[in-house]
Amino acid sequence: MFKEADLIQISALQHYSYCPRQCALIHQEQEFAENVYTLRGDAVHERVDDPKLSYLAVGKRVEFALPLYSFQYGLAGKADVIEFFTDGAPYPVEYKHGSKREKLHDDIQVAAQALCLEEMLAVSVLKGSVYYASSKKRREVLINENLRAVTQDVIQAVHNLLSSDRMPAAVNDRRCLNCSLHDICKPEILSATSELNQLYTELFSLNPDEET
Ligand code: SF4
């Protein structure tokens, strides 16, 4: 069991599955920057970040901004929306900007919320949804064994990363184009430096007999 001081944010799982370096920069170095994507995300979350929005509907109670935790997995966070059906089963709904799309890191966030709800309420949570604000469509996420295993692996990896002082290497690929931390991270420079270091290493490890 984790102590309260060692809980990691559920959002760190999404950041890690997008780019481990991004996760370390945000959750270890406390770096943050906005770009058009984070601003759109903030705008969507602001719409649901108020417990007073909670309401009763036919066959369900809809709760907004519900705090979540798991001491077994060492997680803490806040759910955008949890629907509670009359049989007591909670159904997490994660809000995202953009249009309906398949994204593993969105699914991991829903699964992590399910793990928290299972511990908090001693129930099984077998499915949830991602709601895409631009297309106003939901995509159902099955919390199956595969997704649970992937999510638990990512949770472990994030705990390992954030309890170390390791800074993962820059991925320097397409992910960097949309990353709000691009100017802080400077992936092209870091990648060039690492290639240069590799060249130096190879240069000075040459066997004298191989020199030209
Ligand atoms: S700029 Fe690229 S390497 Fe740096 S944090 Fe963002 S995605 Fe990761």
Give an overview in words.
A hairpin with a 4-residue loop joins β6 and β7. The radius of gyration is 21 Å and the shape is elongated. The N and C termini lie far apart (60 Å). The chain has two domains: 4-168, Lambda Exonuclease, Chain A, CATH 3.90.320; 170-212. With 212 residues, the protein is α/β, with parallel strands linked by helices. The protein has eight helices and seven strands, in the order βαααββββαββαααα. It has helices at 10-18, 20-27, 36-46, 104-121, 145-162, 174-177, 182-185, 187-204, and strands spanning 8-9, 55-57, 60-70, 75-85, 90-96, 127-132, 137-142. Strands 1, 2, 3, 4, 5, 6 and 7 form a seven-stranded mixed sheet that branches. The structure holds iron/sulfur cluster (SF4).
| List of distinct ligands in this structure | iron/sulfur cluster
| CATH class bucket of the largest domain | Alpha Beta
Number of strands: 7
Helical coverage, percent range: 40-55%
Number of domains: 2
Poorly predicted ranges (pLDDT <50, ≥5 residues)?
none
Q: Count helical runs.
A: 8
Q: Describe the biggest sheet?
A: 7 strands, mixed
Radius of gyration: 21 Å
Quaternary organization: single chain
Q: What shape does the CA trace take? A: elongated
CATH architecture of the largest domain: Alpha-Beta Complex
What CATH calls the topology of the largest domain is: Lambda Exonuclease, Chain A
Mean pLDDT: 87
Q: What is the H-and-E element order? A: EHHHEEEEHEEHHHH
Q: Give the amount of beta strand, in percent.
A: 15-25%
Distance between the termini: 60 Å
User: What structural class do helix, strand and pairing data support?
Assistant: alpha/beta
